[in-house]
């Protein structure tokens, strides 16, 4: 099957040739005119068929886009559900292990253990914190300050507070 641009070129050539015959003072042979008109009608039908087929392909692609958009939404929702289920299972496992008094469980395939949550840094007076614990954009370097406060608990501008509860590690 011809390409659309080929049909359009052929259509234009026949149309121009037909116009030149009609405008010329030379012989206007009716047979030549009829053959060219017929050819022009054929090309026009080919062109219309091609345009219609392209329209159907476009519709199909638009439908496929709708399907993909809906599938993305469905998979995004499914991902959210799976992540929430994993969070729930971790919490359930942590509570169960605490309830039976087990801090760890090791098998040939996996290990699960409870650990204390790390201490949280509570800032008492941010203005008294030395500049070395701040980044250039004047943000607090909490990790460094936390290490410093652990080593120097009497610094006066921050203290370490124990955090209650446990977190779970699954490997």
Would you give an account of this structure?
This protein is an alpha+beta fold. The protein folds into two domains: 4-97; 109-170, no CATH class. The chain has three helices and five strands. The chain has helices at 4-23, 30-100, 142-151, and strands at residues 104-106, 111-116, 120-123, 158-161, 166-170. The chain has a three-stranded antiparallel beta sheet with strand order 1-2-5, covered by helices on one side. Strands 3-4 form a two-stranded antiparallel sheet. Helix 1 packs antiparallel against helix 2. The relative contact order is 0.09. The model has no long low-confidence stretch (mean pLDDT 84).
Give the class from helix and strand content and strand pairing. Answer: alpha+beta
Helical stretch tally: 3
Rg is 39 Å
The number of distinct β-strands equals 5
Average pLDDT works out at 84
- How widely separated are the two ends? 60 Å
């Amino acid at each position: 099957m011809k390409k659309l641009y080929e049909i359009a070129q052929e259509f234009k050539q026949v149309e121009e040739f037909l116009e030149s015959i009609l405008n010329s003072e030379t012989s206007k042979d009716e047979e030549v005119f009829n053959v060219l008109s017929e050819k022009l009608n054929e090309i026009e039908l080919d062109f219309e068929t091609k345009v219609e087929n392209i329209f159907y392909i476009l519709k199909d692609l638009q439908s496929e886009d709708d399907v993909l958009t809906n599938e993305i939404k469905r998979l995004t929702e499914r991902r959210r559900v799976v992540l929430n289920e994993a969070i729930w299972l971790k919490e359930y496992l942590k509570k169960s292990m605490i309830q039976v008094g087990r801090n760890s469980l090791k098998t040939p395939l996996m290990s699960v253990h409870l650990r204390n949550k790390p201490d949280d840094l509570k800032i008492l007076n941010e203005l008294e914190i030395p500049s070395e614990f701040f980044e250039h954009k004047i943000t607090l370097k909490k990790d460094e300050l936390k290490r410093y406060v652990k080593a120097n608990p009497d610094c006066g501008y921050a203290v370490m507070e124990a955090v209650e509860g446990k977190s779970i590690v699954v490997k």
